[in-house]
């Protein structure tokens, strides 16, 4: 029996979250780490989970905080801030 | 502004540690982390890097003097963006607090990578930058000092908590599932 996964901040999403988490963990170990991560079999399960979350994030007032943080440290650059990107840019090349 | 850093080592190979990192919570030590949600997750088709954005919900008592300033809430939210490079074998997690950030910002970067002198082990590095924005310097210092202390406590608990998870999972994982092919 594996480790119990964490709960969702929105309890109404726990069930869809568990299904997604189990799918992801299997994919991560069996496919992604072995270089076969191109296809994502968990997409549909994730859509269900994401739909549930979206409602809850807005309802609980977290969406605004998130959007601000996303501006400062975008997902597309791995959550790096402009400051960190500038430092990386200015760093001398490592051999 | 204050900086806190720590390093440690886990006696498990990187593949296993990185997979276990997704299962770190809940654990009996880190009871302050009450929920972890995945907000976005993508594999970059060019680089093969898995990027994940997560929302971490914490509930932890805070001292009365601080509670008065932040308005009486003990639930806080953290946004974390992580990158896993399965070829280079690096897991990097960057997080910052969403709540209380008009008063205090805690930015943390954690990395997990193989111990290059012993691939059966994984090294962990953690650096946090803590900055308070109160008008009065003394209050700033007080908030930063409290935050540094809280951070250190949670980091120590976090390490123990993760160790316990790594051990528990190791007893359920079939022999050889995460065996590293030596690249030395």
Keywords, separated by commas or semicolons:
A: 95 residues; B: 184 residues; alpha+beta; Alpha-D-Glucose-1,6-Bisphosphate, Chain A, domain 4; 3 helices; 41% strand; Slowmo/Ups (chain B); PRELI-like family-domain-containing protein (chain B); PRELI/MSF1_dom (chain B); MDM35_apoptosis (chain A)
Please characterize this protein's 3D structure.
The complex is a heterodimer of chains A (95) and B (184). Chain A is mainly alpha-helical. In chain A, 56% of the residues lie in helices and 0% in strands. Chain A contains four helices and no strands. In chain A, helix 1 packs across helix 2. The N and C termini of chain A lie far apart (45 Å). The mean pLDDT of chain A is 90. Chain B is α+β, with helices and mostly antiparallel strands and 184 residues long. Chain B has one domain: Alpha-D-Glucose-1,6-Bisphosphate, Chain A, domain 4. Chain B is built from three helices and seven strands. In chain B, strands 1-7-6-5-4-3-2 form a seven-stranded antiparallel β-sheet. In chain B, strand 4 and strand 5 form a beta hairpin. The radius of gyration of chain B is 18 Å and the shape is elongated. The mean pLDDT of chain B is 91. The interface between A and B is large, with 41 and 47 residues.
């Amino acid at each position: 029996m594996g480790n119990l996964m964490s709960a969702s901040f929105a309890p109404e999403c726990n069930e869809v979250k568990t299904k997604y988490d189990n799918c992801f963990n299997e994919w991560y170990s069996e496919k992604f780490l072995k270089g076969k991560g191109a296809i994502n079999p968990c997409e549909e399960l994730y859509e269900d989970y994401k739909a549930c979350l979206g409602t809850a994030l807005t309802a609980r007032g977290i969406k605004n905080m998130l959007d601000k943080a996303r501006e400062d440290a975008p997902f597309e650059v791995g959550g790096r801030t402009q400051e960190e990107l500038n430092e990386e840019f200015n760093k001398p090349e490592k051999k | 502004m204050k900086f806190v850093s720590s390093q440690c080592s886990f006696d498990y190979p990187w593949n296993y540690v990185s997979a276990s990192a997704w299962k770190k919570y809940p654990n009996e030590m880190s009871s302050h982390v009450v929920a972890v949600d995945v907000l976005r997750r993508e594999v970059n088709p060019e680089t093969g890097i898995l990027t994940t954005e997560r929302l971490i919900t914490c509930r932890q008592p805070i001292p009365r003097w601080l509670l008065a300033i932040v308005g009486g809430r003990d639930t806080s939210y953290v946004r974390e963006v992580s990158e896993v490079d399965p070829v280079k074998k690096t897991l990097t997690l960057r997080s910052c607090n969403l709540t209380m950030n008009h008063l205090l910002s805690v930015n943390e970067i954690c990395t997990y990578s193989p111990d290059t002198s012993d691939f059966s082990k994984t090294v962990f590095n953690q650096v946090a930058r803590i900055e308070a924005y109160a008008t009065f310097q003394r209050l700033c210092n007080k908030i930063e000092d409290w935050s540094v202390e809280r951070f250190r406590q949670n980091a120590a608990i976090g390490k123990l908590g993760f160790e316990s998870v790594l051990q528990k999972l190791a007893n359920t994982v079939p022999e050889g599932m995460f065996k590293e092919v030596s690249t030395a």
